[in-house]
Design brief:
The chain contains 3 helices and 11 strands; from the N terminus they run ααββββββαβββββ. By secondary structure, it is α+β, with helices and mostly antiparallel strands.
Length: about 210
């Protein structure tokens, strides 16, 4: 599948998720997703983020398990999101604001916690193309955590035979954020220093 095709199918699938397609039982695909998540120890990628208003931001994503993730936005965007293994931190350097949440209280916990058994809270979303697999994660006991729908392309060379294409996150207020990935690289060396950040409230700096 070419990058253009991947974007086309991902965009269409995002629209399908928006109308809440029913789940079907595809235990083999769900097991493959679990295998991919557990086989991925690190990942780097370019990302494109689209919010509910259609605003698009680009940047680079770095992931390291357990619990570490960094969204480094393009130059000129004063935002940073970092997961340090315990908490997910959102930093807005333009107003020197910092917000933190336990990683387990966010949909991203599915991606960065290798111990999570997604078969207990996830389901396969039926797709229109057999080359794609989508899985929705949602904890009915904690609807305030929101939900995440991850999209994979079948790729024998990727961990678990699946290549993560991106995801759609829906928070408890109905705010939708779509992340599309490109140039994915798995299981390379990633320094723990990647997940440090400067607190603008005390130093006024930016990492």
């Amino acid at each position: 599948m070419t990058g253009r095709d991947s974007l086309k199918y991902f965009t269409a699938l995002t629209a399908a998720v928006a109308i809440a397609a029913p789940a079907v039982a595809q235990s083999g695909d769900l097991a493959a997703v679990q295998q991919h998540l557990r086989a991925t120890t690190t990942m780097t990628a370019n990302f494109s983020q689209t919010d509910r208003a259609g605003k698009v931001l680009n940047g680079t994503l770095t992931l390291k398990k357990p619990g570490k993730i960094r969204f480094q936005y393009e130059k000129g965007v004063p935002l940073l999101i970092v997961g340090d293994g315990k908490a997910l931190t959102f930093i807005d350097y333009s107003v020197k604001q910092v917000q933190r949440w336990p990683i387990g209280n966010t949909p991203l916990g599915v991606l960065i916690n290798p111990d999570k058994d997604i078969t207990k809270f996830a389901k396969i979303v039926p797709g229109f193309d057999p080359r794609l697999v989508s899985v929705e994660g949602y904890d009915p006991k904690h609807p305030e955590y929101g939900r995440i729908t991850m999209v994979f392309a079948r790729d024998a060379a990727a961990p678990g035979g699946l290549m993560l294409q991106g995801w759609v996150m829906l928070d408890s207020q109905g705010n939708r954020t779509t992340i599309r990935l490109s140039n994915q690289r798995f299981n390379g060396s990633v320094s723990d220093g990647t997940f440090r950040w400067n607190d603008p409230r005390s130093r006024g700096g930016r990492s």
